[in-house]
Write a structure and sequence with these properties.
alpha+beta, 4-stranded antiparallel sheet, about 325 residues, 19 strands, about 20% helix
Length: about 325
């Protein structure tokens, strides 16, 4: 016998729910390399997009002026030292006063300080990598006249990536409640091409405060990136998975939408239909996980929902157990 209407009930069971959060991908270290001295860019030892090791020389600013300054400072320091030693001999023989010796000592100290400063300035003409990383695009060309502070390039340490995402307050509480003691929250990363990144991330840092305006809290997951696939500035989705205890599952086709709210038709014991608003906690292919609106004992209309209206009485319908109904759908978790 053909029935015009088919009904079922929500299925109550523990289910694994995945949620996606838009995220920003950042290198664990990402810095700007700038010229520390004024001068012409004499040599570039590296190339854009290449990997450099910590301490490797990357740029050389023409050091002639600073080398000359260093030689001058070295000469002045040598002269001050000879002057001090001569004065010391005279002071030891009481030919000159102790004050004169102190003055010679102060001159020597000043000359040594100026020599150290000249060495630092000369050192600044060589730009070295402060850590292992990948070089970004050059902002300057060979022979460019640089001013102190000019941007040369940026350097990223991509060995690990920090991935930032915002989680609503209720979902944050779910994660914290379901997380076993001393365990860590693990997440997956869906890249911009919709592929899942092969390594799992660990949520290490959670900001101390909720954003009251948005009701969100910021999470940071750390992902290993040994193959260098992820780059600073990329975007994607963090996929976080949690277990919902005693979740209510209904087929998506049993629902309808009015003004962006989701409803189902519940059939009462007198075969009268009532429109009930439902709250969707998560979406799976063909299924919704819902938190309230109906119970596992309610009978909800599965087929024929376009043919009826709220508070209408229907003659008869066929009821199918939820497990049987869900098995016919694309996704059904045993």
């Amino acid at each position: 016998e053909e029935f015009k209407f088919l009904a079922t009930s929500p299925l109550k069971k523990d289910t694994t729910v995945s949620r996606a959060y838009v995220c920003q991908i950042r290198a664990i270290q990402h810095i700007e390399l700038r010229a520390l001295e004024r001068g012409y860019l004499q040599t570039i030892y590296v190339d854009e997009g290449k990997t450099v090791r910590k301490g490797q020389t990357m740029f050389q600013i023409m050091p002639l002026l600073y080398r000359a300054e260093l030689q001058k400072a070295e000469a002045e320091a040598n002269y001050a030292e000879i002057e001090y030693l001569n004065t010391k001999q005279l002071a030891d023989s009481n030919v000159v006063s102790k004050n004169e010796l102190l003055l010679a000592k102060a001159k020597l100290n000043k000359a040594k300080a100026e020599l150290a400063l000249a060495q630092v300035h000369l050192g600044f003409t060589e730009i070295k990598a402060p850590f292992n990383g990948i070089i970004d695009r050059f902002q300057v060309r060979l022979g460019s006249l640089l001013d102190e502070g000019d941007l040369l390039t940026t350097l990223s340490d991509n060995s690990e990536m920090w991935v930032y995402f915002n989680v609503p307050e209720a979902e944050y509480l779910n994660y914290k409640t379901n997380l076993k003691k001393d365990s860590v929250m693990r997440v997956k990363l869906q890249m911009a091409n919709y592929e899942i990144f092969e390594y799992t991330g660990i949520v290490k840092t959670i900001e101390a405060d909720f954003n009251n305006e948005k009701g969100n809290i910021a999470f940071r997951a750390t992902f290993p990136n040994p193959k260098g696939l992820l780059r600073h500035g990329e975007t994607g989705n963090v996929i976080a998975t949690s277990v919902m205890k005693n979740a209510l599952i209904i087929p998506q086709k049993s629902t309808f939408e009015v003004l962006e709210k989701k409803y189902v038709f519940v059939i009462d014991k007198d075969n009268v239909i009532h429109k009930k608003e439902i709250t969707i906690a998560s979406e799976l292919p063909d299924l919704f996980v819902i938190t309230d609106g109906v119970t596992e004992n309610d009978r909800i209309m599965l087929e024929g929902i376009r043919k009826v209206r709220d508070n209408e009485k229907i003659a008869e319908y066929k009821y199918e157990a939820p497990k049987k109904v869900l098995k016919t759908l694309k996704v059904y978790v045993e």
